[in-house]
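Query form — protein Succinyl-diaminopimelate desuccinylase

QUESTION: What is the three-dimensional structure of this chain?
INPUT:
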Amino acid sequence: MLDLRGDPIELTAALVDIPSESRHEARIADAVEAALRAQTSGFEILRSGDAVLARTALGRPTRVLLAGHLDTVPVADNLPSRRSFGDDGELLHGCGTVDMKSGDAVFLHLAATLDAPAHDLTLVFYDCEEIEAAANGLGRIERDLPDWLRADVAILGEPSGGYIEAGCQGTLRVVIRAGGTRAHSARSWMGDNAIHKLGAVLGRLTAYRARTVDIDGCTYREGLSAVRIDGGVAGNVIPDAASVTVNFRFAPDRSPEQALAHVHEVFDGLDVAIEQTDAADGALPGLSQPAAKALVDAADGRVRAKY
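ANSWER: The structure tokens for Succinyl-diaminopimelate desuccinylase are given below.
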């Protein structure tokens, strides 16, 4: 069983050694649930799919929500965890060490060792964060268990270099498709090359100048990037279809609808079709809220925007 009361670094290693790629979090969720039930007191504990939730009801005037995802990106020959020693001291390596099983370990350790917290606590360990927003376990919890997400301030244990990274940028993905006419490359003039049409799309992306926005003293930097290109039939065929996937990371003063409208503006006039495939709202930093201000003060004002 996971040892929640021991060294958080050892707990991190134990969590890392449980493979938990997105959509395959059942084993780690089982381990987290069992450890919370056996090693904590005063928590209501609930399972939602492959997410584990726990909360106190101490009657405190404020509530802090601690959240972390249990899933990782695909393993790349980086399990089990290992240690190394160098100029930076001892390092722990392995899939999920930074993003974000170390954060999960800290929250689990706090749940087991804090005897009299100043705030009521809610812990949310959720699934499917590393893939499309529609699969994100937080969305399911928001739909099915909205009261579990109510709090005065929420802290996610993503890596931040010791800073409070406030708010969060939104994300939008679109596929930009170009059509053409297929032909043999020996008679290329008889075709209409769809891949060539993407040159104009890439040109707009290259010339694009991203917006920088200051909100509550946090500087958010937007980004519009090509992340995938698809096209081609064979080495001697003019392609009749091609596409580029574009990811727009937008500041939290935009809604997903406004972000999509902006993407259409950027590519206006081109002979392409734009299809939205994924979107997630940003979050304003909310640093003027009393609970957030107390957190900033505790961190000696070390705050920056969450990208």
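ADDITIONAL NOTE: Residues 8-159 form a domain with the Aminopeptidase fold (CATH 3.40.630.10).
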